[in-house]
Amino acid sequence: MSGKKFSKKVVIAAFVLLALLAFTMAVAGCLTPGGGGGKTYSADVIIVGAGGAGMSATIEARKVGASVIVLEKSAVVGGNTLPAMSGLSAVGSDVQTAADIGSNVYTIDDFVKRHVNKLNNPDLVRLLAQKSAETVRWLEDMGLVLTIASKDGDGRMMHAPSGPGGQAIIPLLSESLKKSGATVVFNTTATELIYQSGKVVGVEAVDSKGNKLQFRGNAVILATGGYGRDNALVAQYRPEYAGLATDEIAPTTGDGLRMAQKIGAAVQDLDQFHLISKVEIISHDMILPGWIAENAIFVNYAGKRFLKEGAAPGQSQVGLVDTVLTAPVDKRTFYYIFDDAILKNHSGVQAFYNRRLTVQGATPAELAAKLGIDPTAFENTINTWNGYFRTTPIVDREFGRTGAGMTAPLSNPPYYAIRANSGIHYCMGGLKINTQNQVITTEGNIIPGLYAAGEVTGGVHGSERVEGTAVTDSLVFGRLAGQQASAYAASQGKVVINLPAPASSGKTAVGNFTNGVHTGTGMGRNGPLTVSVTVANGSITKIDFVRQTETPVMFDAIERQLIPAIISAQSLNVDSVSGATISTTGVLEAVKSALE
Fold this sequence. Notes:
Blueprint: H1 13-17, E1 29-31, E2 39-42, E3 45-48, H2 52-63, E4 68-71, E5 88-89, H3 94-98, H4 108-115, H5 122-142, E6 147-148, E7 158-160, H6 165-180, E8 183-185, E9 188-196, E10 199-207, E11 212-216, E12 219-222, H7 231-237, E13 245-246, H8 255-262, E14 267-268, E15 273-280, E16 297-299, H9 320-325, E17 334-339, H10 340-345, H11 347-354, E18 359-361, H12 364-371, H13 375-387, E19 415-427, E20 430-431, E21 438-440, E22 446-452, H14 469-491, E23 516-523, E24 528-536, E25 539-547, H15 552-569, H16 581-595
Parallel strand pairs: 1-8, 2-11, 3-4, 3-12, 4-8, 12-22, 13-19
Antiparallel strand pairs: 5-7, 6-7, 9-10, 10-11, 14-20, 15-19, 16-17, 17-19, 18-19, 21-22, 23-24, 24-25
């Protein structure tokens, strides 16, 4: 069924009131604060960031009865733990024992020996190893099923769920967070640490509408992640990496680093990064080797091929980052080129196409124009590539590509491109901490009341991040920070608890739609989603999901923020859900389809 198009008479004022909207997540008070600039709230512990480290810290602090307020810059929990593909490294767990590793047991000393390098802190690495098995049990108690991914080499410590690690772990942490009763304040950015009488006693913050807020407590935990999405900060510490993309989906702009450095915190290893070769620049998705289609090619800003493409090791993976770094800073985007024949036969490129992450042209020249690269050079590149298939044997005279990756020319229009860049996957440097998660000053003293965990810290990885240890780092040190900060907060005396209360959404605007139940479909991050929109007396009264495959925590944010916003404003002219922009676009598209 279809309804009328959105009326221009919609009362826009109702949308403004949406900024005051707040929602409660089970027992937890999860809300979006607004109004009342300068309002002050208080709890025993203030935690900045709701990624893996911040969530773990919150759960542990609440376990001992500390009151907690969590500030989350986006509208989604999970941070950069959510897109983590691997599991977590651990040693001495029941999972490892059950894997029957035999006499060749991987010990804590083995773990430390493998992970210690010239830059990191051996004490932090040993603590990570010592607490890793306990953290595995903690996750198992939440219902996570883990197996040892491999018994060979470092794989003996890789504890893997059945699917991508972050998507298995974060929903469990989210559920525990809800049950904990902690207050989570979304769409709120911490801007300054409140430092008084020689200790940290809170955080100043600003909400999405610019209202200034204060959150005071006896302890503050920084779990703000890295700085991969702040190109200026990356360039400051590693100038040659300026202009690179990142696959970090959280708004990691170095907020915790800046706040702590302002009050004298020491940092370490800020020039150390883990880079990856291919990132789609809109979605921030890593382009995995298996997603590279045979017969597809890569071209650079000049419209020319620049390496031997392919999915196999030794082809596009090796040297791609170094090649990208030779390009001018503002021209480091490259393009993954394929034609309609490849699109119809390769699920990897279909996934990007379905999510509208491709650029299309009827001819090579048209595609080049849309990409902003030289049409003549690009057309020559395609013609040269196709010419190789008119020889026997088929020979790539430029880069020597052969075999299964080179079986057919690019000769079936239309032509497509995925925009990509090499990217920053992980920031290995950060705030200097001790084994109690306390932040250290440049003089080597602790900053009373200030703790940190996760990617905002340095010293755990140094110059080399071993696969699986980033997740372990966030969970182990997040838990420890929650335990240490809550104990310190209790020693500082009683806090008068003043938690943000859910605010009224205000008056709902009046719609002008056709009564009935209408359905429509849009494309979300993970695939099609279908909504059912109920209209009564001309106004939208209900939006239900008939089908959706979005990541649970992102879908939580959609239900908590976007759906009430549409109903309140009776309009699609609402803010995107920070941290879930692709899902937002899909839902808006589906609702629009239903009502047109």
